[in-house]
Amino acid sequence: MSFLTVGHRGVMGVEPENTLRSFRRAEREGVDQVELDLHLSKDGALVVMHDASVDRTTDGTGPISDLTLAEIRRLDAGQGEGVPVFEEVLDRVTCPIQAEIKDTAAARVLASVLRERDETGRVSVLSFHDDALAEIHTLLPEVATVLVASDLGPDIVPRAQAVGARLVSLDLTQLTLDVVSRCHAAGIAVMAWSVNTPQDWALTRALGLDGAATDLPPALGRDRTPADGVSAP
Fold it and tell me: Is residue 184 flagged as an active site residue?
């Protein structure tokens, strides 16, 4: 595969994360795919948000699972942006999408939407939760699954294989040449998160990675002054 550049929650370093504004900006900046996160609302909507609560990224409070979609619709996610649902992103974004399941209960709902919308070819499904990926792989074996992990122990390859993942998304700060070599030997591609500074981009090349998730427009990240901090997918 050619090197894959993924807009992490859109381009969250310069736009409100996981908003339509952020995803559209990522597309304009030329990323290959955009990544987003999914939780279920109280009434079963696929809400695009990273955290389990709305507190950090909106002007509201409370767990997503305790809020109805109507209540979530009233929140400001930054710069006047609302909180989108997954179907709206499908409608408004044209590039391929990486959809990360944060709430394992979302797996079956996501599978249903992908089947009904005939989007099984454009959307790949990511998760830290092996059981969520296994459910997607069983329900929709044609959908690409991606195992996300920060613990890169010896079981990373068999875990990926068990859920049908041919790509793993791993914490750049934990990656080693040995991990990359073991994955590649098993026919599993490796991308890293989050790749933001020139040093990060240089490390992706040194490790021979197949892709990277970035918080910034790629050109800005490669040229900017290094910044502290790594954000999880």
Answer: no
Name the active-site residue from 8, 39, 129, 137.
8
Alpha helices in the chain (DSSP H): 20-28, 69-73, 86-92, 106-117, 130-139, 156-162, 177-185, 198-207, 218-223
Which residue among the candidates 39, 50, 129, 137 is catalytic per the annotation? 50
**59-98: pLDDT as tens digits:** 999 999 999 999 999 999 999 999 999 999 999 999 999 9
Which pTM was predicted? Answer: 0.94
Reference 100, options 153, 47, 173; nearest CA is: 47
Q: Does residue 50 have an active-site annotation?
A: yes
**Residues 43-63: tens digit of each pLDDT:** 999 999 999 999 999 999 999
